[in-house]
What does this fold into?
Amino acid sequence: MLDKNGIAKRIAKEVKDGYYVNLGIGIPTLVANFVRNDIEVEFQSENGVLGMGPFPFEGEEDADIINAGKQTITTLPGASFFDSATSFGMIRGKHVDLTILGAMEVAENGDIANWKIPGKMVKGMGGAMDLVASAENIIVAMMHTNKSGQSKLLNRCTLPLTGVGCVKKIVTNMAVLEVKNHAFHLLERAPGVSVEDIKKATEGRLVVAGDIPEMEL
It folds into this structure.
């Protein structure tokens, strides 16, 4: 199975030249480390940064330059900083080509739950609800199962929803899946992972058509 960096590396293949991309908290922030050097991509963070680069090396961090997850980041030449009103105007105005989010649950119809577990303290919903309501291309980066081995790809989400019917593609530590027609369509499997393994780990409706290739990382 893939680790978090492996998931991010696979998602980086979905990033195209000229894209404006929002990276959510967690695994998505790692995607900036793996984007091809021969393309130009603008990474946006909803706390008001456009032009994020890879994470800084140890000892080179600047505590004043952070992403929405309060992680220290680097910026590329030409990067800009702005207030939240401008940042969310960019998001709500559909100026972001691709949104990459983490999730606690995704349903077979594309619903996503990623901001709250009832009974647990939460700092706030952040920009996730605006992002999923405005973006036309949403990729979820997540583990296929939780720590108890239960599937996180469900018939129906059990946690409070962030967005409805919005997820287009999912990359997990086991597979790449497309969400369409109320089902998870298996596109690729992680190295060493069988189709049967993925079936066992997926609660929601899974469509397997033909031979499923291994991911190329």
Observations:
- Residues 94 and 134 are 6 Å apart (CA to CA).
- Residues 4-28+91-207 form a domain with the Glutaconate Coenzyme A-transferase fold (CATH 3.40.1080.10).
